[in-house]
Amino acid sequence: MILVLSARWFLGTSAGTSFLESYPGQYSQPDAPRGYPWWLNWAHFFNAFLMILIIKTGIQIRTEARPQAYWTPKWNKKRKISLTIWLHQCLDLLWVLNGVIFVILLFATGYWERVVPTSWDVFPNALSAGLQYASLDWPTHGEWAHYNSLQELAYFTTIFIAAPLAILTGVRMSGLWPANNQALNKAFPVEAARAVHFPVMIYFTAFILVHVILVFATGALRNLNLIYTGQDATNWAGFWLFALSLAVIIAAALATRALVVAPIASLFGRVGR
Questions:
Q1: How far apart are CA 225 and CA 239, in angstroms?
Q2: pLDDT band (50, 70, 90) for residue 75
Q3: Which pLDDT score, from 0 to 100, does residue 74 have?
Q4: How far apart are CA 192 and CA 203, in angstroms?
Q5: Percent of the chain scoring above 90 in pLDDT
């Protein structure tokens, strides 16, 4: 409440009004492509689908005292990890693949300009957008699917900073890391990877929660249509597609248990106690 009142007070002053006039919350990006292409909508769904399962299994790894089962790869019978870790790492690999395809398409189609700042004006405009959010006067004005500067910085941080950190630290803690390379182990201790990996997961969790809240708070039907149908329309099509995707994600989350995962894992190794 104090934050809301403070933001409203400042924006109501002559200094606040002048600041909004100079920095409305987004800077001009005349060459950036508009709208949402089909590949971006699909990548968005797969990313959400995989991230929810990755976060769920990540929490399971940290909290399970005694794994229900273990997995041993066919090519390395000396290695033994919990079935939950195996599932988590498989989901990670799918998430990385989805992310690589997404980034390639971002740069191949020019959509990178939507999420990579191209002007120093992004910072005062991000502050402006933040003040507007804090005042509950949502910064929803502007061209179709033209992100405000705070969104742009958040997406840039997520795609190009948080995601690489999650991948690098995840690889360090996985069986993909060359464990016998003492130089690499000394340069990047596993303790450092663990210290970074969990906070990054917290960041992703917070990002998803804020993202979903703002989607619904700033015009749910229009936003869901943009995300799921790629159309700038206000109808229920996007909402029902969102409901269907949510049902798929919930069903998948409920299915991440040993009874379901073990038969799949046994195709790639031995599952047992």
A1: 7
A2: confident
A3: 85
A4: 17
A5: 73
Tokens 């996007």 correspond to: 238
CA–CA separation, 23 vs 121, rounded Å? 8
pLDDT (0 to 100) of residue 143? 57
Which letter does DSSP use for residue 77 in this model? Answer: T
Ranges of beta strands (E only) in the chain are: 70-73, 81-82, 269-272
C-alpha distance across the termini of the chain, in Å: 53
Q: Are 72 and 120 in contact (CB under 8 A)?
A: no
Q: Which two tokens stand for residue 222?
A: 């229009």
- Per cent of the chain over pLDDT 70 is 98
Q: In sequence order, which residues have a C-beta less than 8 Å from that of residue 248 and are 6 or more positions away? A: 49
Strand order in the sheet with 81-82: 81-82, 70-73, 269-272
Instruction: Share the mean pLDDT of the chain.
Output: 92
Query: Do 49 and 247 meet the contact criterion of CB atoms below 8 Å apart?
Result: no
Residue 46 has what pLDDT?
Answer: 96
What's the Rg (C-alpha) of the chain? 22
Task: Answer whether 140's CB lies under 8 Å from 223's CB.
Answer: no
Show the domains of the chain with their CATH numbers. Answer: 1-23+121-134 (no CATH), 38-120+140-272 (1.20.950)
SS3 state at 42:
helix
Query: Bridge-partner residues for 82, per DSSP?
Result: 70
CA 242 to chain centre: 17
- pLDDT, one tens digit per residue, over 168-193 is 999 999 888 888 889 999 999 999 99
The residues with which 81 forms a beta bridge, in sequence order, are 71
